[in-house]
């Protein structure tokens, strides 16, 4: 009897092991877009809603024009860049010479981590390498053109990833440019109409594996893909490894910039274009990557106050983006010294203060039936992502109405419905009349100073 029982247990274990191996094989992804696109989006990303982008590199030294300084000066030969160099630098000065002044002497990754945490963001994405090819980590394929060999002589990326992962609850992500403007290997592949892959095999793909294996990022934000197909970049093969076998296979998310023609078609989430903000609900998860400085992603010494988006504009962009199913990735550009300029810090902490009061309308929310109100402009809706029996809808009101009387057409309510204002302790009075009319309290008694959120329960549509 005991022998039969043992044999039964053994047979059960063999069967269980068989089904586990079958299940594992089913869950593996092939290097095809059909297979890769079938992977469910990790829930954390959809719940996060708000992240911080950081553009930092050698372009932070001239800090003039934009992060495309080298290309604008040497390739496009735009007059303002050529004149800037003639007026301020000696003949024969090269872009590589800027790297010696990329000192980062005031860089304190713990301080950065604290500022990003205070912003209310849930993830951070750092430029590991922009199109200039300079890496912020000691890349094995970027000899003498990385932050350890020349410049600050520090693993800038590694230090920030450690601070973010050890001292905050934020996810850490990495931006990486597939191409490099002036890399001879890339230019040779381009000259060969991308029939050769010297650059991909010796530079780009080894870098991506190195970044993932050494720093365990939860986001790979790819860029610089547009000149060649994903076949040249071998993107699908890398993503299949990322999803199947990498140390972050269960949590990592990737964007849609993996080859010519892939944008808005393939990836965990779509970016479409920089500063993409459609104003209508999108059928696929997307991200609005945008800049506080309206003119540049990198730091600019000659920026004016009017070049920076105001707090009202930033909160409006967040409301519009999340209402339409997107995440907001808001960019800051640190100085060559490693300082997050006070105006950036003020905007980041301002976002955090607003989210501390109104975050329940943003985090883990879902798009509602309507994205914005059809009667009163400047009102954007989200709904609770919880499984409440009754629908909870949030109305983000960008403009305080005259005499505090707010008219909304979209929500249909019943007698049991309630309306509260986040940051205010008492229920609000409302009546059904061509939609609903809500009487807001004295503005001075409300915690929020801009963009006020109504929480509406028992919404019937």
Which tags fit this structure?
461 residues; alpha/beta; seven-stranded parallel sheet; 13 helices; globular; disordered N terminus
**Mean pLDDT across residues:** 93
How widely separated are the two ends?
63 Å
What is the element string, with H for helices and E for strands?
Answer: HHHEHHHEHEHHEHHEEHEHEEEEEEE
The radius of gyration is 25 Å
Strand content: 15-25%
Number of helices: 13
* Residue runs with pLDDT of under 50 for 5 or more positions: 1-11, 13-25
Category from helices, strands and their pairing? alpha/beta
Q: Major beta sheet, specifics?
A: 7 strands, parallel
Q: How many beta strands in the DSSP annotation?
A: 14
Give the % helix. Answer: 25-40%
| Structural shape | globular
Order of neighbouring strands in the sheet with most strands: 5-4-3-2-1-7-6
Short overview:
With 461 residues, this protein is an alpha/beta fold.
Descriptive report:
The strands form three sheets. A seven-stranded parallel sheet has the order 5-4-3-2-1-7-6. A four-stranded antiparallel sheet has the order 8-9-14-11. Strands 10-13-12 form a three-stranded antiparallel sheet, with no helix packed on it. The longest helix is centred in the N-terminal third of the chain and has 26 residues, at 2-27. The protein contains 13 helices and 14 strands. Helix content is 31%, strand content 16%. The protein has helices at 2-27, 33-36, 43-48, 69-75, 79-88, 109-118, 156-167, 184-191, 198-215, 230-233, 235-244, 311-323, 342-358, and strands at residues 50-54, 123-129, 171-177, 219-223, 253-254, 286-291, 326-332, 379-383, 391-397, 405-408, 419-421, 429-432, 436-439, 452-459. The chain has 461 residues and is an alpha/beta fold.
